[in-house]
Amino acid sequence: MLLRIRVALPDRPGSLGQVARTLGVAGADIVQVVVLERAGGRAVDDFTVVWPSGASVRRLLAGLGAMPGVRVDGVWQAIGAPVHGGNDAELLAQIAVNPLDGLGTLVDAVPTLLAAEWAAVLVVPADWAVRNGSGTEGLTALSASIGRAEPAVAHASWRAPQAPRLPEVTPLRARALTGPDDTRYAVAPFGRAGLVLVVARGGVEMPPEPEPSFGLVTVEAEALPAPVAAAFHATEVDRIAQLVRAAALVLGDQLDLVSAPPVAK
Questions:
Q1: How far apart are CA 45 and CA 73, in angstroms?
Q2: Running DSSP on this structure, what letter comes out for residue 223?
Q3: Contact, 65 vs 221, CB < 8 A?
Q4: Residue pair 130/143 in contact by the 8 Å Cβ criterion
């Protein structure tokens, strides 16, 4: 299976090579490295690796955790290696060619572009904002409990759950969020018709029998954190926001015709 691993490491010669060697010794086959950030003597890199199905991810965490100055920010399963370059422009061209299916095309493509699990376009009622001080826990269950209208899914990628537990998507601005189950979200508004793109990624399920050792380094099983997906990086949120703004310009008034499917009674 493909795993995405986000690692923060010292930004000095040799550090990237040491991480790559550690991943290789653990059994990971690296297929892509993306540098997300370099500042203040630190770097944040995303590694896409092929990992043996059924093998314990703890072996990766133990090996990387034994390296001085290295921190694992997230591990999650990827649909494919994220793509860059002209792929965003190609996606927008596909939307322009067939605007009637434009939103469906967008939500199907975005998860692969950003190593996410699923994406959906929501229709968000104007009165859905639920303020509780934290800005991250105004969930669907809470809005339903006080009788407010809930966001509804207009389009969703094929891996999206049937009834997703949605994060608070208002106020309408592009940002990263974390759900109570550690699901990571990025949301970006289209700027009209109450439409918001939600992109989500989850973690990796732990096997029942952990592998607490790596080489000569022994790590207690309870000392190893359960792997969770990394939060969407600022560069990823910016990319999503740019895609949404461009798609909104391409689709124009077509967005005003989008509505949520009726709820079966």
A1: 10
A2: G
A3: no
A4: yes
Q: How far apart are the first and last CA of the chain?
A: 39
Q: What is the pLDDT of residues 117-169, one digit of tens each?
A: 899 998 887 665 544 444 444 444 434 433 446 778 888 998 888 877 777 77
Q: What predicted TM-score, i.e. pTM, was given to this entire model? A: 0.79
**DSSP annotation of 191:** S
For 155, counting Cβ atoms within 10 Å of its Cβ (0-12 exposed, 13-18 middle, 19+ buried), the class is buried
Euclidean distance between CA atoms 220 and 211, whole angstroms:
9
The rounded distance, in Å, linking the Cα atoms of 209 and 191 is 48
- Identify whether 171 is preceded by a cis peptide bond (ω within 30 of 0): yes
Cα separation, 106 vs 228, whole angstroms: 26
- Nearest C-alpha neighbor of 201 from the set 225, 152, 237, 243: 237
Q: How many CB atoms lie within 10 A of CB 113?
A: 22
